[in-house]
Predict the structure.
Amino acid sequence: METNSEDTKPIDNQKLYYTPPDKENLWEADKIRTFTGIYINPFDATPEQINIQDIAHALANIPRFGGHPKRFLSVAEHCLYCYAWAPDAFKLEALLHDASEAYLLDIPRPIKNRLPGYKEAEERLMGVIAQALSLVYPMPAIIKDIDNQALVFEWENLVLKDIRAADRLRPYTNHEETEKRFLQAFRQAQTLKSITQYGYKS
C-alpha cells in the first residue's frame, strides 16, 4: 500500500494556528478570553482587566459541587445566597467572595486541597479583584462563616434532596436570570456599602 507523502508531513503549527487579519487569535498565550472580550492571564491579572460583567456571566454558568447536584446549581446562585444572608456592610464581599472562580473555575474542596499552587493563585487573583472592585480583603471572618452556612444549606437541600424538594428554594430560573440578579445585587451592594461607610448613596 502506497503512503501519500502529504500524510506523513509534520503539522506546521504556524499554519494550524494562523488567524486571518479580521479575526481574533484563539491561541493567545497563557490567556483566556472573557465574555466581554478581555484576554486575561488569571495567574498574572491586573485590576484593569477585571470586569463585573465577566464575573457575573461566568459564575452564572459554572456549576457548584462539580456539577453533581440534582439540578443545576451555579456559583452565582451560591453567591446570591451569601449576599442575602450577609449584613449590609459586607454584602459586596459576600457576593464576590468566589469571584476568582470566574477565571480559575470552581474546584470542589477535596480536589482543590490536592492541587499544588491553586490556593496561592486564588488568593493572588482575589487580591487583584478586591483592588478593582473595592472589596475588603482578606475577607472578613463573617464571610467565611456565611460561605460555610451556604455550603451546608446547599448540600442538604440541593445535593441530597431531589429536584422537587429543591425547586421551591430556587429563585433563579435560568443562567440569564441568575446573571441579571447577580448584577442587580452588585449595584445594590455598592450602594449599601456607601451608606454604611459614609452615610450617603454613591
Remarks:
- The longest helix spans residues 175-198.
- The chain is about 50% helix and 0% strand.
- Strands lie at 32-33, 39-40.
